[in-house]
Write a structure and sequence with these properties.
Elements (H helix, E strand, L loop, with lengths): L1 E3 L1 H7 L2 H16 L9 E5 L4 E10 L4 E10 L10 E8 L6 E6 H20 L6 E5 L3 H13 L4 E5 L3 H11 L7 E3 L3 H6 L3 E4 L18 E4 L12 H6 L1 E4 L2 H7 L1 H8 L8 E4 H6 L12 E4 L4 H18 L3 E2 L4
Parallel strand pairs: 1-6, 7-8, 7-10, 8-9, 10-11, 11-14, 12-13, 12-14
Antiparallel strand pairs: 1-15, 2-3, 3-4, 4-5, 5-6
Length: about 325
């Protein structure tokens, strides 16, 4: 059994490979070639925490994985990561455990990679400015992914904790080949952006939908609770809406469920899944002036694709530590 630490994964996972692996996984999902396994979620309100257990099977990649992930927003004040996770990768033929790996970087890379994949298919090709809401770990991989698929020339970040935004700017300015700046208000981040990405723990809308410019693409990743939202109803109504999966989005996404409950948006208004757009069975962006929106609550197949990629790359590179538990 191969043990892969965060440092090990950092050596073998690249964003271009991650985006490519996710593209194949979402194609398989749209074609019905993956096993749909509901995820188990447990809320711990007294501790301010949430736990998810996410199994997934990708037959085409010969990969079966299970991720346990916890989200404790209160950890940020303690100097701890808000998201912690571990991924177990099994051989689907024998059931043998092939690898146990850090799930924090897997989660960040697969989430960021999906943001890049959505932008590849739904944003304007000439998108030059990125507006990022949230300055945590996943915001970093989101920006890296956008830089892989679009000619980004400038990025603006807004976080309601200024110190986090400042640290993000300092770190990402060394990673990406374009200026990274702090936006002094939510409106400033949205009004100048071609691609807006939200990766925050906010339970209320993080910007005013009236501020979105025509032609903008929005990637929404932060909210996963049916009674909370990062996006206001105006954003949903102005956008051509796409999702990762109907089951997850219409059960867990308050960004969509709350406008539906208000009677202002109908589920029939969702244009399709990202996988369907990739296959060409559903249309994507129809014009350069259209506003598009991709809402994701996260799928186990993302972790499975990422874990399979990491394991194969690690074995090929001789990275990780082999242990025998028998």
């Amino acid at each position: 059994m191969l043990i892969l630490s965060r440092a090990d994964l950092d050596k073998v996972l690249t964003m271009p490979q991650m985006i490519a692996a996710l593209e194949e996984a979402f194609k398989d999902l749209a074609l019905g070639k993956t096993m749909k396994i509901p995820r188990l979620t447990v809320s711990l309100p007294e501790e301010g925490g949430w736990m998810g257990l996410m199994p997934a099977y990708l037959p085409a990649q010969g990969a079966f994985s299970t991720k346990q992930v916890t989200v404790y927003d209160v950890n940020l004040a303690k100097g701890l990561p808000a998201i912690m996770a571990t991924v177990l990768l099994n051989d689907p033929v024998t059931g043998e455990v092939l690898s146990i790996m850090d799930g924090g970087l897997i989660t960040a890379m697969r989430t960021g990679g999906l943001g890049g994949l959505a932008a590849k298919y739904l944003s304007r090709r000439d998108s030059h400015v990125a507006g990022i809401f949230g300055a945590g770990v996943q915001a970093r991989t989101q920006l890296r992914a956008l830089a892989e698929v679009r000619p980004i020339e400038r990025a603006m970040v807004y976080d309601n904790v200024p110190a986090r935004g400042k640290k993000f700017v300092e770190e990402m300015s060394k990673v990406v080949p374009f200026p990274v700046e702090i936006a002094d208000s939510p409106g400033a981040a949205v009004k100048s952006a071609d691609i807006v990405t939200t990766v925050t723990p906010s339970e209320q809308p993080v910007f005013d939908g009236h501020d979105i410019r025509p032609g903008t693409h929005v990637n929404a990743f932060g909210n996963y609770k049916p009674t909370k939202r990062e996006l206001d109803t105006e954003t949903i109504l102005r956008s051509g809406v796409y999702i990762d999966s109907e089951e997850g989005s219409l059960e867990e996404s308050g960004d969509l469920l709350l406008p539906i409950r208000e009677g202002k948006f109908r589920r029939e208004g969702i244009r399709g899944t990202l996988g369907e757009v990739i296959l060409g069975s559903k249309p994507g962006r129809t014009s350069d002036s259209e506003i598009t929106l991709f809402k994701s609550v996260g799928l186990g197949i993302q972790d499975c694709a990422a874990a399979s990629l990491a394991y194969k790359s690690a074995v090929k590179s001789g990275v990780g530590k082999n242990v025998d538990l028998s």
